[in-house]
Every structure is written in structure tokens, then in C-alpha cells.
Amino acid sequence: MLVSLSIRDVVLIDRLDLHFEGGLGVLTGETGAGKSILLDSLGLALGDRADSGLVRHGADQLSVTAVFDVGPDHPARAILKDQGLDAGEDVLTVRRTVSRDGRSRAFVDDQPASVGLLRRLGDTLVEIHGQFETHGLLDATTHQGVLDAYGALETQVAAVRAAWKAWREKAKERAQAEADLEKDRQEEEALRHAVEDLRALGPKAGEEAELADRRSQLMHGEQIAEGLNGALAAVTQTADVEGAFRGAQRSLQRILDKAGTTVQPILDALDRAAIEASEALNLLEKAAGEIDLDPRHLEQVEERLFELRALARKHGVDPDGLPDVQARLEKRLAALEGGGADITRLIREEQAARQTYVEAARALHKTRAAAAKTLDAAVMTELKPLKLDKATFVTRVEELEEGSWSAEGLDRVAFEVATNPGAPPGPIAKIASGGELSRFTLALKVVLASIGPVPTLVFDEVDAGIGGATAAAVGERLGRLAERLQVLVVTHSPQVAARGARHYRVSKHERDGRVATTVERLDAAARREEVARMLAGERITDEARAAADSLLNTTAA
């Protein structure tokens, strides 16, 4: 929800701070008072294209700040998190400055940001619908998402996306296997030689480290032997160490029942010492007996190590990676010798994945078509009171050729309208006039009020070219929308203005020889006068005030 809008030095606005609440807010004022400046300013804060011509005469730069109330699950928070930014606990502040030389800067919560980020955030915060600028309806790429949300088709869409991903992965795997097979056919001789070399060498994981350790032992065999033999001599030339420990144990066991707990820990330690001494002697004897001083063995180890490292360099891996290389090349050779049996298997798997996708996508197509009929009927119900009783609204769901299928299914969804009886429906952007387009938008938004993440809607003169009962119907529908969303409306219609929960009047005044635009929130008395002016014009009569009272009382009922 838009909480506040602060404007500095934009066209006729010197300094303006507006505060908003939920529900329906209306902005009125005479033509040329500057209502469009407010929308232009809000658009700037949301990433619209900058225009240095908007900078007020005599100022160096303009500034617009918009503050929004965003809940913990608002999609704007996900965008900020993706950009490494943190939204405040309750509010999000976006700011835009434009200098007279055209330079533009953007900020999110006082942190520098790109205009593109403002635009992405703006798409989740506000929808601005003008007579000639209705993004949601004019952008046909959004129609499918709108229909899916209306029909609550998220689960089906997710299944189609998963099936599409599985199909594309299988297609990629098959294509890669075919490319590898073709490459292997061209390089068959080299592949066979590579496999033969690897099989002849028979590399094992961890072998390089074992060989390097063995090589070190062989290179320093004499030194190692001297050390081991010296240690063995030191142990064997002394008295029987293990026997000494065992003799001490026997002496202590004779006094164990008399010495109490004092002797038992000593007995345990002597037992461990005897065991360790025996084990150390055995290990020394074994190691001394295994010393290899044969120079031929050193030569064999060095040769094996050289061959291992040379083949690893040839294949661009570490020696420990050679077993994996061998397995991969043997698999390729087996596929080559098998005449493409693996390709046949992958083709079957790809076809099965395609069939799964087609079945899921066709089921989604049928569900979309059913949801489209329901949506069309609901929108048509809203059109008649909006002076579009002869118009037709159609949600076109067409199955595309296979080359145009996607993760979203095999459909093209488009909202089409016909404004004259007997005329074929066509793209809404081409068929509907400005005022009609705004009313089509309103009808659709009323039907879709319960879906979509955008909590603030702005309508610019949605009542253009209508009056009386039709304007009253527009106001009634705006009021219904405002029960779920924050709605701001720029209007010249007293019937629409009377519906507002909050009323803002935009005025243009001359001050110090300079024209300036101001905006004030009206109390009940001022609101009565403004609605009377809208009914009667510049000369407000008692009859106009009475009519305004009647209108305000009727809409409040």
C-alpha cells in the first residue's frame, strides 16, 4: 500500500507531501490543475523514463519519494533479497532524482540502486491505468499468467514446468550422446589406442601416493635399515624387557590382597607395558626384515611412477583421475561397438518424457479453456453497466505449433474484445478506445480483485466520456475494488468522486508571480463544495449543493 508521496520541484509543484490510506481515494480538480503531474511523479519513483523537462523552472533537480507498506510475504521483499538489499520491518522507501541535465539517480531505502530495480519493485507495488496506458491489458505476455491465477491453476502449471524440464534434459542428453558418438566414430582409432594404453597401465586410485612413498623408502633404504637395526639391537641386547615387566607383575600379585587398591593400577600399567614392549619388538623385527635394498626395485617403481604421471598429463588429469578417464572412454568405446544401442535407449526415454509433457500440457489447455469461459462470463456481466453493453470480451486460448511450446504449456492466451455488434474480436490494445480501455480494465480488475500481488491501483480518468448512470456504475465498481485493494482515482465525475473514502483536491494558484500546484485533503464541508462544483461548474448554486448532498448521502448509504 502506498503510504506517502513526497514531491520536490516537479513542473508546477514546489514542495508537496501527501499521505494516503487504504480504500478508495479520489483526486479532483479543474483541467490543467496538475493532476497528471502527480501520476508522472509516482511513475518516476517506480522507474518510468526520466525527462529533464519535468524539473521545475529555476530548480537544479527534481526529487520524488514514495513510501510503501510491505508485509513480510510481499514479493518486493524477494526482489530486494535477490539484490542483496534488506527492506525495513514494515516499509519500503523508493526515491528518484532527475537533474536538469538529464542525469537520473535511484535509491531504495536510501541505498543507491538501478532504475531497473525500481521498475521491478514498481511492478509489484502499483498498477497505473491511464486512458492510453494500461500496462496489464496491453501487454499480452501477462494474459496467460492472469488466466492461470484466476483459474487457480498453479499446481497444473507447476506439473507442466516440471515435465518440460525433464523432457528438455532428456533431449539434451540424447543430443550430447549423438554428438559424442559421431565424434567417436571420427576418432575411433585414437579412442581405441587410448583405451588400450589405459588398460595396459591399469591405474588405480591412490596409486601415485603409494608409489611415491615406496620410492622414498627405496632411495633411503640403507639409512632406514641402519636406524631400524640400531633400534632392534638396543632392545635385544638388554635384558628381557617383557620378562622384567611380567616378573614385576608376579611379585605384586602375591601382595595384592594385602595392599588393597594401591597395587591394582600398577599391575594394569605393567600389563600394558609388557604388551607394548612385545608389540614394539615384533614391529621392529618385521620392518628390519622387509627392508628392500635391491636397486632394480627402485628402478621399477620410478618407471611405473613416470608412466602413470605421463598418461595423466596426456589426458589432462591428476594420476588419481585416470581410473575415471578409463571408465568414461571404455563406455564411449562400448557405445561405438554397440552400434548406437545407448542412443536408442535415450531416444525412447526422450519420447517418453515428451509424451508426459504433452499429456500434462493438453490437460492444462483444457482447464485453461474452461477457466477462460468462466472469466469471459464474469467480465461480460461487468461490462453492461459500464456502457459497454454491446461489447464482447473473449479470452482466446490457442494451441501452438510444437516449435512454440514452452515451460508454460502449449498455449497462447490473449484477451480480445469487440466493441461493435457483429465485429470479430481483436487485440484489446487495437480495438478499444482510451475510455473503453480503462473501463475494460476496471471490469477485469473487479473480477480479478482477489488475485495478484499488487495492492495499489491507480486509475487516471477511467470515467472519461461517460456520465450519469454509467459514471455511477464506475464509481460503484471502484468502491468494490477498494474493499480489497488501495485504489486511487483521478476523476472529473461527481458520481465517482462521491464514492471516495478520502478526497484530495488539486489546485493551481499564482504565488509570488509564479504558478504552483497544490493538493489538499478535503474535510466534509470542503468535499461538499467540490462535488457541487463538479456538478454545476464555477458558479456553485444551492441546487448544486443539494444535489451534492444527495449524491454523497446516496453513495455513503
From TrEMBL:
Highest taxon above the source species: Bacteria
Q: Which SUPFAM superfamilies match?
A: P-loop containing nucleoside triphosphate hydrolases
Q: Which UniProt keywords apply?
A: ATP-binding, Coiled coil, DNA damage, DNA repair, Nucleotide-binding
Q: Which GO terms describe its biological process?
A: DNA recombination; DNA repair; SOS response
This protein's record includes keyword ATP-binding: yes
GO CC annotation terms, alphabetical = bacterial nucleoid
Q: Which residues form a coiled coil?
A: 174-201
InterPro entries found in the cross-reference section: DNA_recomb/repair_RecN, P-loop_NTPase, RecF/RecN/SMC_N
**RecF/RecN/SMC N-terminal domain spans which residues?**
14-510
Keyword Zinc-finger in record: no
**Gene Ontology MF terms in the entry:** ATP binding
NCBIfam families xrefs: PRK10869.1, recN
Q: What does this protein do?
A: May be involved in recombinational repair of damaged DNA.
The similarity annotation says: Belongs to the RecN family.
* Protein name in UniProt: DNA repair protein RecN
Organism in which the protein naturally occurs: Caenispirillum bisanense
